[in-house]
């Protein structure tokens, strides 16, 4: 489904290539109809804004959101394991899932980078893609709420993903995610402190366990919540 490619592209670092591709996005979303109408309005607003805004302004806004704020990190396992060793194994498992499906990562991006995950979903059968996306619904919902507090139009992407997943996130897990400190991206001292924190944990469990102590890849993703020169997903 090209819809996943569009949503992936919207979450990558904006440049002239992205802006030039914007006219295609609305057409893809309209043709496939995967995103419900209720979420399409806000998504179309974001697409229009990207197409009409100076690229340097777009890059500054993107950096303040997704590069400075740990709580808005676009790496799925960042929100499960932090920098613990278990994150490495989760990365291996996720990369293995990609390779088994015939997707070879040709960039230096980490496997749990959300735009890359969405690229993977774009080449899977739609029902399988929905099921895998549903496993991340809690983190997507938490990210949407944090972006909403910042009045960011990027909230539309995460609302659309939750809607496409057709999975109602568990409120208790979302609330646990939202308990983590969410410093102002302009408060450099607070940001430094946030990036020095250890593994994020949701509920009881020993150090090194996944959320709620579950070990399978799907369980880790279910309770989950960028890099230099990220790959630019393309709509084909």
Question: Would you write up a description of this structure?
Answer:
The protein is mainly α. It has a domain at 66-222. The protein is built from 13 helices and no strands. α8 packs across α10 and α9 crosses α11 (171-178). The chain is globular, with a radius of gyration of 17 Å. The termini are close together. Mean pLDDT is 78; it is low at 198-236.
Question: Which key terms come to mind for this protein?
Answer:
13 helices; mainly alpha; 236 residues
Question: Can you describe this structure in just a few lines?
Answer:
The protein is an all-alpha fold and 236 residues long. It has a domain at 66-222. Helix content is 58%, strand content 0%.
Sequence-ordered SSE layout with sheet pairings:
Elements: H1 2-10, H2 16-32, H3 37-52, H4 55-67, H5 78-81, H6 85-100, H7 114-121, H8 126-134, H9 137-149, H10 155-165, H11 171-178, H12 188-195, H13 217-222
Helix pairs in contact: 1-2, 1-7, 2-3, 3-10, 8-10, 9-10, 9-11
Residues in helix, % = 55-70%
Strand count: 0
Q: Strand-and-helix sequence, N→C?
A: HHHHHHHHHHHHH
User: Terminal Cα separation, in Å?
Assistant: 10 Å
Mean pLDDT: 78
Radius of gyration from the alpha-carbon trace, in angstroms: 17 Å
């Amino acid at each position: 489904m090209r819809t996943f490619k569009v949503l992936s592209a919207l979450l990558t670092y904006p440049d002239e290539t992205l802006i030039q591709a914007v006219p295609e996005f609305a057409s893809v979303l309209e043709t496939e109809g995967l995103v419900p109408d209720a979420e399409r309005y806000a998504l179309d607003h974001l697409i229009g804004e990207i197409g009409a805004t100076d690229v340097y302004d777009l890059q500054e806004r993107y950096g303040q959101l997704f590069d400075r704020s740990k709580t808005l990190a676009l790496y799925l396992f960042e929100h499960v394991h932090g920098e613990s060793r278990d994150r490495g194994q989760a990365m291996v498992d996720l990369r293995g899932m990609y390779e088994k499906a015939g997707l070879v990562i040709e960039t230096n991006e980490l496997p749990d980078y959300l735009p890359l995950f969405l690229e993977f979903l774009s080449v899977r059968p739609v029902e399988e893609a929905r099921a895998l996306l549903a496993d991340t619904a809690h983190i997507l919902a938490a990210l949407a709420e944090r972006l909403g507090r910042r009045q960011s139009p990027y909230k539309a992407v995460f609302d659309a993903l939750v809607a496409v997943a057709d999975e109602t996130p568990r409120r208790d897990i979302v609330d646990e995610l939202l308990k983590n400190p969410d410093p102002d991206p302009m408060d450099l001292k607070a940001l430094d402190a946030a990036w020095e924190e250890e593994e994020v944990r949701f509920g009881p469990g020993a150090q090194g366990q996944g959320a709620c102590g579950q070990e399978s890849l799907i369980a880790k993703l279910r309770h989950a919540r960028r890099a230099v020169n990220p790959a630019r997903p393309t709509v084909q």
